[in-house]
Amino acid sequence: MIASRRVLAGLLAVLGLAANQPASAQAPVPSVSLVTYGPGQVYWERFGHNALVFRDPLSGRGTSYNYGMFDFEEADFMLNFALGRMQYQIAAEDADEEIAWYRSEGRSILEQELNLDASQVLALKAYLETNLLPENRRYPYDYFTSNCSTRIRDALDKVLGGALRKQLTSPSRGLTYRLLADALMSPDAALMLGIDLGLGPYSDQRLSFWQDSFVPMQLMQHLSDVRIDDPSGASVALVRDERVLAQSRWPDPPFLPPDLRWPFFAIGIVFGGLALFLRQRSARAWARRSLATLGAGFSLFTGLAGLVMLGLWLFTAHQSAWANENLLIMNPLALLLVPAWCGSARPHWSAGRFTRGLLMLIALLAGFALFSKILTSFEQANLAWILLTLPIHLALAHCASSRQAR
Predict the structure, then answer these.
(1) What domain range includes position 177?
(2) pTM to 2 decimals?
(3) Are the CB atoms for 126 and 49 separated by under 8 Å?
């Protein structure tokens, strides 16, 4: 009987101790990793992607939290995309299934296990779970300032008490939003050129490491150098371990985009020279028709491009496209020249006063665009586009002035 009481007392003591243990001892704290997926082949995959993975140390099962979910089938998706009012959302998925899918797509995958203590891990998970609530799940998306990578960066900074932002705010490699976007989109040349043409001076500010972390691969690199204080106050690396889970099947994007200034200038000289050549042979029908096609096509392209840039500035939330200095070389008024250039194919056509004046105004604005590059208030990196269009503007203005109405 005495032995039975001792056994019972022992069991009660064990149960009491278990009940008094902290939750972290009862349920092991999961490990946390930043998983970075390299660029893919589709244009919306060019910037890469990342996620935070929480993995149970006992079962090995993991949950991936990412802020990169969007739906093409959403009502008014394309309209909201054009207006800069896109909504993205956070999602939680099975980590192993997600990693397997990206591996099947040929994307590079790098996992960085983070050196967070138990309280930070639990705080981070609670923050992400709060974001997963229906009322918090969606967020206003911006390519440069609010995307899948910046949201993860901000979540980590929150649980680290601002240590991440403090260490990443001052360093800079002189990169800009434009340079990073152009480099990542360079495999799709037409799309890269369209993006570059549409970006305004906002995209040419020099970025800190904190700002350029909108690119998942940049955030991945910066975290490798971050140090934090552990519970004892000792300085330790934020990244505890780093593992390559998959190599990319695709070529790595360049660090910097191609320098287009000289190639664009050569193209501008060729087309400007062609316009002058055709004007000298305007007695021939083929030369008149060719010059009319060149003039109308160039005016249509620059006018429509200018109209789009003006619309992005005045009617959308795309801050990176506002006040685009390319409006000096791609003027919407050029659309008014299209009928005149179409009529120039006639044998006895001559440019009227309005046409000559408008061509001269457009050429003068393009000349000012080149001069503006020495002014500190005009900081947009658009010299390549100026060198492309200025020779053509000048040549077309000369062609029209040499065929004045009598």
Answers:
(1) 27-246
(2) 0.89
(3) no
